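User: My instructor asked us to take a sequence, write out its structure as tokens, and then describe one feature of it. I'm not sure where to start. Here is the sequence I was given:
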Amino acid sequence: MTRKEWLEAYARAWEEGDAETAASLFTEDALYRSHPFREAHVGTEGIRAYWTQATSTQEDVSVRCGDPVAAGDQLAVEWWATFLNDGEEVTLPGVLLLRFAPDGRCEELREYWHAEGGLREPFPGWGR
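Assistant: Let's start with the prediction itself. The structure tokens for your sequence are:
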């Protein structure tokens, strides 16, 4: 799986609330940091449990990824998500910092994001 395919699968899994597919994108011992002040979710079981909980109240999810920047086994990419969370409109832009294993699965994910009420479009030049 290429890095572009990985990002597409990640976005699709989020849009579909598919924790099983999301977990399959990671190594068995992966670290997934969903927020800088939270403990990491560890391994595919921890990631599956996090995704099941995090997406359980989300509907009408739309995820866009910008142009990734890659160096060796690492990749950084902006993302922009909009959805309904418990019926409330949410815009959630952020950045993923990823480190990949030789088999194409992710070994470490760190994300930084900001939630804003309402459905908003990205600013001009976003994602480049």
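For the description part of your assignment, you could build on this observation: The chain has one domain: 3-116. Try explaining in your own words what that tells you about the chain.
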